[in-house]
Design goal:
Elements: H1 15-18, H2 27-54, H3 58-69, H4 76-98, E1 130-133, E2 136-139, E3 146-150, H5 158-170, E4 175-179, H6 184-192, E5 198-202, H7 207-212, E6 218-222
Parallel strand pairs: 3-4, 4-5
Antiparallel strand pairs: 1-2, 3-6
């Protein structure tokens, strides 16, 4: 106030350079105009970037949004897709689990039936006899389900046995060849050339010959419950069995 010059503070050698007040205040207008011009360019660039982003295909737009945000989070469209996928999966799983289970067929009854038909007749049981083999004795009525073949004396039925064995094998059924003790050699010959589903058994008491009066190769298909499906005498390779073998794994008709 006394007109003495203002001294710069100690230690501020650049004070004169840091604080430069122009003689004419209008010189500040140029700096202000330059700053406003720079701001206008910045705002134009931002608008141009937004317009360019909107013109991109959708996947590239998501990627550009993600890159512009850095690592701040997952893109909203991606989250929406995940939610939709989870919803569809849940609906499908519910539909599958609530779908009605188709009814299953009852299990094959293994209890031996008690039919009214006589032994040796269609619809009856096999003879209540004991058969023997190299592996031991077995009850005749345990040969179920399966196909029984009673061979005649002096059997010349190799081709018929082979045809019958192959048909039984196609239905996953065993074939039991039954003969008298005097026919053991014939049974051994047939067994040697037969497929694995063929088994040879001896009827020591002749119960099968008495019950079925066999003529040629006599075939007796047996259901799972022991009921015989048919009695076919003089079976030949061309003899038709129809749908008989396919039904043997089920119970016989009442």
């Amino acid at each position: 106030m006394n007109g003495d010059p203002v001294e710069p503070p100690s230690g501020s050698e650049d004070f004169s350079r840091a604080l430069q007040v122009p003689d004419d205040a209008r010189e500040l207008d140029r700096d202000a105009e330059a700053w406003r011009r720079e701001e206008r360019w910045r705002r134009r660039r931002e608008r141009l970037q937004r317009l360019t982003l909107l013109s991109l295909p959708l996947p590239r737009r998501w990627r550009a949004n993600r890159e512009s945000r850095g690592k701040r989070g997952v893109a909203v469209p991606v989250i929406a897709l995940i939610v939709v996928a989870i919803g569809l999966f849940s609906a499908t799983a519910t539909l599958v689990t609530t779908r009605a289970t188709p009814p299953t067929r009852p299990p094959v009854p293994l209890k031996l039936a008690d039919p009214t038909a006589q032994v040796g007749k269609t619809g009856g049981l096999l003879p209540d006899a004991t058969l023997t083999a190299d592996t031991g004795a077995t009850a005749a009525r345990d040969l179920r389900p399966g196909v029984v073949g009673i061979i005649p004396t002096d059997c010349k039925c190799g081709s018929a046995v082979d045809a019958l064995a192959r048909r039984a094998a196609a239905s996953a059924l065993p074939l039991y060849l039954i003969g008298s003790p005097a026919q053991r050699a014939d049974l051994d010959k047939l067994l040697a050339v037969s497929p694995p589903n063929v088994h040879a058994l001896i009827d020591p008491d002749g119960a099968f010959a008495a019950a079925y009066a066999p003529v040629g190769l006599t075939v007796v298909p047996v259901h799972a419950d022991g009921v015989t499906a048919a009695v076919i005498r003089d079976f030949k390779p061309q003899t038709s069995l129809g749908p008989v073998l396919a039904s043997l794994k089920e119970a016989g008709p009442p």
